[in-house]
Prior knowledge:
By secondary structure, chain A is mainly β.
Amino acid sequence: AIQLTQSPSSLSASVGDRVTITCRASQGISSGLAWYQQKPGKAPKLLIYDASSLESGVPSRFSGSGSGTDFTLTISSLQPEDFATYYCQHFNIYPFTFGPGTKVDIK
Amino acid sequence: EVQLVESGGGLVKPGGSLTLSCAVYGSTFTNIWMSWVRQAPGKGLEWVARIKSKKDGETRDYTAPVNGRFTISRDDLKRTVSLQMISLKTDDTAVYYCTTGGPWGTYFDNWGQGTLVTVSS
């Protein structure tokens, strides 16, 4: 199975900061990657698919990039509602797997 | 707007069985590939099972830890997807989410609220 790693595992940031989260795949997955946001007690929410396509209704401060094995999720200006845990997920081949998550909290 | 509503979670003893159900509202259900994703308490997300649409062969895939114990199925008339779980283990304790798949069941674009399954003696 393809393994995904995320870095950092957690970070503290302030409102207005630019935040970058990295996801690395154990083998090439082309652009078959999605990003999700999850808040405590809630279901995950799709943010980005196909590595860089913004899901409908998601604010434009979220962006994704990368292909092959290295991917990034960027939040250009962190807002109070963005404090959450972020997961990447590949959909190159079954079994689909998720990264371990990156928790973004308030500095 | 697509809405997914899960039911059927609860407390079950190791070795026991449980069936989860998910009702899908507001979309063309017959063409959608459906998945279950679970999250153990305090842990990350794990894809569990996927079923293709009938026109794509209704093929099923499972993650290795549940293969042979879990069965995913769908009823297009009732607009529901189910997850039958047998020989449950304590490691199966998790919130189980029903999800719709993007094109070819790739990413998960709609999620239910989740239903908690607790396997404990």
